[in-house]
Design goal:
The chain has one domain: UDP-N-acetylmuramoyl-L-alanine:D-glutamate ligase (3-Layer(aba) Sandwich). Helix content is 37%, strand content 24%. The chain has helices at 23-28, 44-51, 63-75, 91-103, 143-147, 149-157, 172-184, 196-201, 203-209, 220-229, 237-245, 294-306, 312-326; strands at 7-10, 14-20, 36-38, 57-61, 81-88, 106-112, 119-125, 128-134, 160-164, 188-192, 215-219, 257-262, 265-271, 274-278. The strands form two sheets. A nine-stranded mixed beta sheet has the order 6-5-1-9-10-11-12-13-14, sandwiched between helices. It has a five-stranded mixed beta sheet with strand order 3-8-7-2-4. Helix 3 (63-75) packs across helix 12. The longest helix has 15 residues, at 312-326.
């Protein structure tokens, strides 16, 4: 079967601890609405506080893992996707393994025996989410694990690679190995801008990976931060998308395509110096549960069609469909079967 292990993701597996909180909670822990950051010492007590809430939910997450699970769900083809990352040897790690197996993703976790499985506090206020990631074991991933024959075999087998920008903070070496393999073998390598702080504080490693990126995903806030950090004096998302698509490439096999989501506004797709806008599926406010995982779901839906070599329009439509499903549920979760045609 042509789709066996066609798509490989690498990233930070995190157990989402999701709860509805209030503005006071955000102020108490110095958290901005609708942002994504790494936990500092001042944030650590909030995990316990959230775990004690009656509305708390635990969902196996992490940006890349979410996208891969959604792609697997949309494809409905056994063993189409694989995922690599690092977890701890603990109950959260076991939970993660069980959850991935149920999702049908072929996971190869590195299991760290010193650090606990990473967690991500998902603070939901008025349907918007703010993420505070405590990487712990996810931060312990080493390229030695990737080089092990059974894991490198997944790299050899895959034709498409997707990595969220968050992984740049953990193992740039692993990203580089996969990126170079993709370029040398005419495969498709994709990354996400992921968060403003990645564009700001991990600019050097992001720039090293950029020439290998055949697709760059992101949202409008990340795109504008990228523009500012690179001294482009524009806030215009369409212009920024074109500029990103025209940055130098390591291989001429694929032209770079930039895909930027803008919440309820159209999706911006830039390629060949041109921009095309695709409308999203609008959702009445009362149906919105939370936006956690919306961007990841968009990418997962998009990838599910891309690996089948469908046209751009179908990829974006599938991305919008998946995001629309996820924002009507808590966390990055989905019904048993997709209803996408």
């Amino acid at each position: 079967m042509a789709y066996e292990r066609v798509l490989l993701g690498m990233g930070n597996p995190l157990l989402d601890i999701s709860a509805v909180v209030d503005d006071e909670f955000l102020t108490k822990y110095d958290i901005k609405p609708n942002n994504a950051i790494l936990a500092e010492d001042k944030h650590l007590p909030m995990y316990e506080e959230m775990a004690s809430k009656s509305n708390v939910e635990y969902i196996a997450g992490g940006a890349t893992q979410n996208s891969i699970k959604i792609a697997q769900w949309m494809l409905q083809v056994p063993d189409a996707t694989s995922y690599i990352g690092s977890i701890g040897k603990d109950k959260f790690g076991e939970e993660m393994k069980k959850n991935s197996k149920l999702a049908g993703v072929n996971v190869q976790y590195y299991e760290d025996d010193k650090a606990p499985t990473g967690t991500c506090a998902v603070c939901v206020v008025g349907g918007e989410r703010s993420l505070v990631a405590n990487l712990s074991a996810a931060n312990c991933y080493k390229s030695e694990h990737l080089k092990q024959p059974e894991n490198w075999a997944l790299v050899e087998k895959a034709k498409y690679f997707y990595i969220a920008g968050f992984f740049l903070t953990v193992s740039p070496e692993s990203i580089q190995l996969v990126a170079e393999h993709a370029a040398a073998n005419n495969k498709v390598f994709m990354m996400n801008l992921s968060a403003p702080f990645i564009c700001e504080f991990f600019k050097d490693v992001q720039e090293k990976a950029l020439p290998y990126m055949d697709y760059v995903f992101g949202n409008e806030t990340e795109a504008r931060t990228f523009s500012r950090v690179h001294g482009w004096e524009t806030d215009n998302v369409e212009e920024i998308a074109i500029k990103i698509s025209q940055l130098p490439k390591a291989s001429g096999a694929h032209k770079r395509i930039t895909v930027i989501t803008q919440g309820a506004d159209p999706v911006v797709v830039a390629q060949d110096g041109k921009v095309k806008l695709y409308p999203v599926i609008l959702l009445p406010k009362e149906k919105l549960v939370d936006t956690n995982g919306a961007g990841d779901a968009f990418v997962g839906g998009f990838l599910s069609q891309l690996v089948q070599e469908k046209p751009m329009e179908d990829c974006v439509r599938a991305g919008c469909y998946a995001a629309n499903v996820v924002i009507q549920r808590s966390g990055c979760s989905y019904p048993e079967k997709p209803d996408f045609h």
